[in-house]
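Provenance

Sequences were taken from public entries as deposited. Structures were produced by running a predictor on each sequence independently, with no templates supplied. The record for Hydroxymethylglutaryl-CoA synthase from Gardnerella vaginalis is shown for reference.
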Amino acid sequence: MTFSLKNIESNHAKQLFKDNENTSVENTHVESSPVGIDRISFTTPHYYVDLTDLAKAREIDPNKFTIGIGQSEQSVPPNNQDIVTLGAQAALPLLKYVKKDKLKMLIVGTESGVDASKSSALYIHNLLKLNSCARCIEIKEACYGGTAALMTACDYVRVHKDSQVLVIAADIARYGLNTPGEVTQGAGAVAMLISANPHVLKINDDSVVKSCDIQDFWRPVYQDTALARGKFSSEKYIEFFLDVWQKYSEQNSCDLNDFAALCFHLPYTKMGLKALRAAMDSSENLSETSRVRLLEKYETSTKYSRRIGNIYTGSLYLGLLSLLELDGNPEIANPEVVNPGAANPAATSIQTSTIQTNSSCENQKFSSLKEGDKIGLFSYGSGAIGEFFTGTLMQGFKQALFASEHIEMLNSRAKLTVSEYEKMFNSVAKYCPEDFVSDTTHRDCTQFFLNSISSQERNYI
Ligand code: HMG
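Predicted structure for Hydroxymethylglutaryl-CoA synthase:
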């Protein structure tokens, strides 16, 4: 048989038909198994600065930081921590659920990567001793990178239903000392294991996305601090949210009453609240019960971020964790646990011995989240991309969380004075070819460290 274009086209068409047949059979099967977050965990550095102290040092009314911006504390990384060490640390609790031969990808979403070429996923892959058959890649689009990684992972698992994908969203948010953005800095990482039949949250295949080239926030490759048009970025965040939310509600014939809770990307906790209020104000049929419920659940979703700050790619998922782990948790009745300083401004450390993660809380007006509840999630990455998507809670999701470990990690952090924070901030490895040896004194409570940079190569232990 001679090859002609006609033959090729007809063979191609036959093949396509065959592929489609196979795909539709497989899709029918895959659709029956939910895909989403099987396990989710986070980490944050062991050090923090109190934002009331910082406000006083900057001669600003502390209420601007704690009320106007909505932040109480900020995690501060020592110079032996970067997004590689934070990412590996966040993933540690998930390793016992990883089936070695099933893990097919490790995707890191970050905008504070350590190399312009090599993926941070490869360093993490080595630190965690993962199998060599897993693809290791890094995704970048500002704070949206974590969602891009999650969506890529879910799409992969929908096609390869026996596989697992590890998603890590890790960042250190730096704007600089004495800048308007300083109060919104932070550091941390969220790790998520994505699989079929997940234990925590089914990710529904219903995203609405908006992308548009704007200049609201960016970071040139030669510096480690971000540049922002602060107010413009906050306006764009709300505009993107309203656009994707409106389209989502039209496409899915639903409204805010249909959601048990909404979670937002949280550059600072007041930001999501502004967006939520804007949507509620423009909603024609929002019931009073739904309005109060959404506000109460929003408040719960901001507890961790209020104490950690912006962790860029991981912020939305830190909000989700805060909601799932603190909702219905009796410790929430004690403001000191999740909002230190609320009862006593001098308080710095809280005991957590009585935490029970799945009991109901008398002080909550609304019943705890339960299996089948639908949660809306808004992801925003400057530059900019906005995406609204939803998740459905799985049966027994509370038992799959690491709530007490997370609360204990937060409450056992060490407080820095403002001058200690400034010294730590300035001690970071510089963007230059000089050798660097990291601090050996701040190595508490973490397993992985950036030990040194020699001849422009990073050495982790
Ligand atoms: P600012 O100019 O310092 O603050 O910048 P302000 O003057 O706008 O005041 C902030 C709020 O505090 C205002 O409330 C004031 O009224 C209030 P609002 O009108 O907004 O509701 N206030 C007080 N409240 C109580 N008592 C007082 C008092 N004084 C004032 N005494 C800004 C704030 C957030 C703009 C700044 O910190 C900044 O530039 N941050 C960085 C950029 C940012 O976070 N943008 C958010 C949207 S973009 C995004 O989310 C993406 C991002 O995560 C990056 C990525 O995608 O990779 C940032």
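The first strand starts at residue 35 and ends at 43.
Residues 61, 63-64, 67-69, 111, 142-143, 180-181, 183-184, 216-217, 228, 230-231, 233-234, 237, 265, 267-268, 270-271, 310, 312, 380-382 surround 3-hydroxy-3-methylglutaryl-coenzyme A (CB under 6 Å).
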